[in-house]
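Try this one yourself first.
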């Protein structure tokens, strides 16, 4: 068993025992209620310019499926929105449920989506990722909700095709020539608030940019994601599902919307 996870003995309710930040005042995810959101007309649009050549590998770390990018220079960056300066894309990963009616971390007006994709970026003014983790403006995560429908998202195919190579914990495969901006929905509308990593050590260094429009995936695509295992090869199969943290207390934080 790892130090933290999503099981009854090492799950979100017990993370604070080893990771005290988990009980902080600016934790993520949160439930977003439209009635409490404030439209901020001064919020700029956000932009990305990603180099497909920056994609490096895809791996199963036993907790999620993660694609890692070269972030050794301003090669794939996120700008604008609530951010100042360019933030470097470091990795993307997902959180999902054991069935289509739950799996996302953020909950929108009571709606839980089947999955939530996170694109993690960090602010190079803080030198490196470890330094950025210690700053309130250190990290920016773009969150995209996945909704199950009839039409498969062809752009998700690329990630899901690699799943067969990384079935078990510790498996890694080359993942190149991939521009993750193809995963974005049509609308750029977003909510933004200040929060934390949704996994230990739960540092409160994240500017969240959550896209209002979900992308649609097919039931087969969700089943593919759920076919990942959290156990290493040659150990009893434990499905990698329900790797989401439940909503945390908002504690008076303001959630702003870029849209009316
Ligand atoms: C101290 O060393 C550290 C500290 C922290 C990390 C986590 N960093 S990370 O990018 O892997 C993320 C974990 C969870 C993410 S979420 N669901 O909020 O987007 S992003 C790595 C090394
Ligand atoms: Zn995440």
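Now uncover the answer:
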């Amino acid at each position: 068993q790892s130090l933290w996870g999503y099981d009854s003995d090492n799950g979100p309710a017990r993370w604070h025992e080893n990771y005290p930040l988990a009980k902080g005042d600016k934790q993520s995810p949160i439930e977003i209620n439209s009635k409490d959101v404030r439209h901020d007309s001064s919020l700029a649009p956000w932009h990305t310019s990603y180099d497909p050549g920056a994609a490096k590998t895809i791996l199963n770390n036993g907790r999620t499926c993660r694609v890692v990018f070269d972030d050794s220079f301003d090669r794939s960056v996120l700008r604008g929105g609530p951010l100042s300066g360019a933030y470097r894309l470091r990795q993307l990963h997902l959180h999902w449920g054991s069935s289509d009616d739950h799996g996302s971390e953020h909950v929108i007006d009571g709606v839980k989506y089947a999955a939530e994709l996170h694109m993690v970026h960090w602010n190079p003014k803080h030198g490196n990722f470890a330094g950025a983790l210690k700053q309130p403006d250190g990290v920016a995560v773009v969150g995209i909700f996945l909704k199950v429908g009839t039409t498969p998202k062809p752009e998700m195919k690329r990630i899901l095709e690699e799943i067969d190579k990384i079935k078990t914990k510790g498996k890694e495969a080359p993942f190149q020539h991939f521009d993750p901006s193809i995963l974005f929905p049509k609308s750029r509308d977003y909510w933004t608030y200040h929060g934390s990593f949704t996994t230990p050590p739960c540092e409160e260094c994240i500017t969240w940019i959550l896209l209002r429009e979900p992308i649609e995936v097919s039931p087969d695509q969700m089943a593919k994601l759920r076919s990942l295992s959290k156990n290493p090869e040659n150990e009893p199969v434990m499905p990698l599902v329900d790797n989401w943290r439940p909503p945390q207390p908002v504690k008076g934080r303001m959630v702003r919307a870029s849209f009316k």
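Discussion: The longest strand covers residues 87-96. The radius of gyration is 17 Å.
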